[in-house]
Write a structure and sequence with these properties.
This protein is α+β, with helices and mostly antiparallel strands. It has one domain. Helices cover 24% and strands 43% of the residues. Strands 1, 2, 3, 4, 5, 6, 7, 8, 9, 10, 11 and 12 form a twelve-stranded antiparallel sheet that branches. Strand 7 and strand 8 form a beta hairpin.
Amino acid sequence: MKVLLCLLALSIAPLAAAGDSSPENETPPLTPEQIVSRAVKHAKYLQEQKLEQKFTFIELAIREELTKDGSIKTRDVRRSKMYPVEGVLHGRVIERNGQPLTPEEQEAEDRREQDLRTRIANGEEETKDENRIEFDQELIGRYRVALAEKKFIDGRPTHVITFEPKSDRLPIRKRMDYALNKSRGKIFIDAETFEVARVEFRLIEPVGLWWGLLAKLRQAEGSVDRKPLEDGYWAPTEFNIYMNMRVLFSNKHYRRQSQWSDHRCWSEPTEDAATGDSN
């Protein structure tokens, strides 16, 4: 029954997007601001439906520290199974650096999930991730946008929108805003559904962290990719970022990559899910 509801939710999302008239039929054509506004509106609708919590999927996270010449200094690879726990998306590590977890590590993952269930049962709110970036009007409102081109990506017509900060005095509400206010890039928006297919971004000038006393982010560039699944739901598939920063008196170079795959509608919890079995 739960799978059926999940598929029904997926069928609603494309219809909601189709309710907005396609830019192909607009006279005059949509402006860049209107295209982005429709994408934000669609993203808000999907967020309200909490479709992400209706799926289980696999996350492969790669964290690397690099030397100055780009060689790998340290590397950590973790494979996790992501699934909802009482309505909260939870990640259970099932593999580290190509090796299955030891019994002690599995017990630690058991405790971590149980701690989450206990906090939810006690009515405790999850700590908000300050580094999480929401694609909403507050975010996009700080940028000047322009239509660069219209192209086909994976056979789909796509608007390529450039963005850059509107001014040098944008509001700072959280630590991430220091970087967001100094970034420019491109947003690739599907012309039929107004889903965001890709975002490319880069820092245009260094920014200080913790008032510039502890660290300074000198360079950052990356991308996020999203693709439609067979049932019409668009899911994140890959995230990449490179950072060059000064931490106290040391220069650090980091590369992060996350890949998400094997998305499936979430059904009733099973013993396999509880033990982190990915098969």
